[in-house]
Amino acid sequence: MMERVKASTGPGGRGQEASVDYRFVRLLSVILFPAVAAFAQPQINASGVVNSASYRTPGLPASGIAQGSIFTIFGTGLGGSSWVGASAFPLPITLGGTSASVTTGTTQTSVIILGANAYQINAILPSTTPVGAGTITVTYNGQTSPAQPIQVVASTFAMYTYNQSGAGQAVATDTNYQLNTIIHTVHPGDYISLWGTGLGAIDSSDAQPPAGGDLPGSVTVYIGNATVSAPYYHGRAPGYAGLDQVVFQVPDGIEGCYVPVGVDTGAGVGNVATIAVSSSGETCSDSVLGQDLINKLASGQKVDFAYVRLEGDFTAGFIQYGSDVALATFSEIDPGNAGTAEYGVSSGYCYAVDCSQGCLATNGAAYNNVLSDSSPAQLDAGAVSFVAGPEAVTGGATIPLYQSGGFYEDVLSGTTGTRVLWSDLPYQVTGAGGTNVGSFSVTDNTSNATLKFSNVSAAMVVPRSSGLQLQWTGGDATLQNGQVTIGAYSGSSDYKQFQVLQCTAPLSAQGFTIPSWILSTLPASGLFGGQSAEPIGFIWIGQYDTPTIFNATGLDRGIITDILYHEIEVNFQ
Question: Has domain 33-153 been given CATH number 2.60.40.10?
């Protein structure tokens, strides 16, 4: 990519050329032009045609491919063994022997290839492609793949995110093109630019550098619990084919390291990401990292952090079972990847993630966990094990946690009627030590789980088009800084679409409303096979315990906590 970008920056900067933070340019380059290795025969994966920013699973709300947008095709044999990227305008329809075409109705359209290798193609869907259900094929070196479905829509905007997953910290910049992170916040009243794709068609060739200017149609930005109905700018980033910007002013009253944001062009919210907002200064203050480690990051130093969690639930409804899981992440965060330090959602807000392709490293339960911690998890801590307390059901059995990089997880129980995690008992997590982290042993004494919903019943129908008002009883004001965690998920009958959400709210309020814009991202709840009345929808509530701090060689800090929550089956429709 070029070292300069022409883009809208806010008042006084609209459509003017501005120098760009090189980290931002490199980040977009990585997102749009990855590199992996080889295969041969062209095959497009099932559900493998997605928006390049959100990777949103086909079938979920707002999951179509917009005219003029950048999209991604996943499969095998799509191109050569190494990544080939387009380097000049006009952008090609064939690159390195790879081409692709979309058929909607009787019209066949050649897509514009930005880059390709064996497993992945990044492309632009021409603005002239007719809207509607269609098919797509890929041709590589004269061999054409079987067709896969594609849904072409007029617009559906999705933000690029720092970790390239479609969730977490948004790729967002201030008016000086500095990346927004927990160590470079924006403030209420500031203008911020979201970078993504899918605002819709332009009236010129998508193979040429686009001009600036607002695109037709209305755009609504949701940020926290506020709505911005007329953003300052919504159009192409001038000079960058397919790449869009939405520029808006941060409303008053918004604050937190992890403030959710979403954009609706009329087709629904394309994905939910977060931005970091503070009332003043350069850093935010509500991350589990702690202010001292955030300050260390802001000073230019790296931070090595371990986050260990024991999570358990008891489900009431058609079936009753326990589902307990132990998790740990060992992460190194530096100023350059501060956007990957993603730990939950700030108080008063809700956040949502597409988990259709799997959000966990193993077959774990407790969907709450992936939204609580999606940090880099790249540090090797060696073998890590969970040891149940002597009074617990397992009688002190040692359970190894499965390792994937610096992410560790194991399901502790899952059989109907069995549990491992109980209130007010000691549980130990031990680490043998590895390449990056030394040995450790820490004990967590679980909290007393008294928090329950008071207005939710089994199989209750929950409309996704309106806010869900929740009420609760119980809880402990000394836990989680007087906050509660609410989670939910909904899945389709064919188990191909799953969306998970998480909210944080003050315990003392004894109630909270999940906004309709968050609920609208969920798929309608299907029914579990063979049980016609049992919805694939759940909602839960609990509190994280006060963390216990532990130390190990190679860590600035480690913490362990637990959450025991009450879960009820519901029917999102």
Answer: yes
516 contacts 466 by C-beta, under 8 angstroms = yes
Instruction: For residue 24, give the 3-state DSSP assignment.
Output: helix
- Phi, psi dihedral angles at 461 (to 5 degrees): -80, 125
The answer on pLDDT for 35 being more than 50 is no
Select 158-277's CATH number: 3.40.50, 1.10.3470, 1.10.150, 2.60.40: 2.60.40
| Backbone φ and ψ of 337, nearest 5° | -120, 25
**Do 296 and 341 contact (CB within 8 A), yes or no?**
no
**CB-based contacts of 458, cutoff 8 Å, min separation 6:** 316, 317, 318, 568, 569, 570
Pairing of strands 498-506, 460-462: unpaired
Helix (H, G, I), strand (E, B) or coil at 507: helix
**With b meaning 16 or more CB within 10 Å and e meaning fewer, what string describes 354-386?**
bbbeebbbbebbbbbbbbbbbbbbbbebbebbb
- Find the Cα–Cα–Cα–Cα dihedral 102, 104, 107, 109, rounded to 10°: -20
Whether the upstream peptide bond of residue 463 has omega within 30° of 0, thus cis, is: no
- In this chain, the answer to whether the domains covering 33-153 and 158-277 adopt an identical fold is yes
Any idea where the domains of the chain sit in the sequence? 33-153, 158-277, 301-376+448-572
pLDDT digits (tens, 9 = 90+) for 119-155: 999 999 999 999 999 999 999 999 999 999 999 999 9
Q: What is the DSSP letter of 546?
A: P
The pTM score is 0.92
- Beta-carbon count within 10 A of 3 CB: 8
Q: Kindly give, in sequence order, each residue whose CB lies less than 8 Å from that of residue 530, ignoring residues fewer than 6 positions away.
A: none
Least confident range from 48-52, 407-411, 526-530: namely 526-530
Give the residues across from 304 on adjacent strands: 332
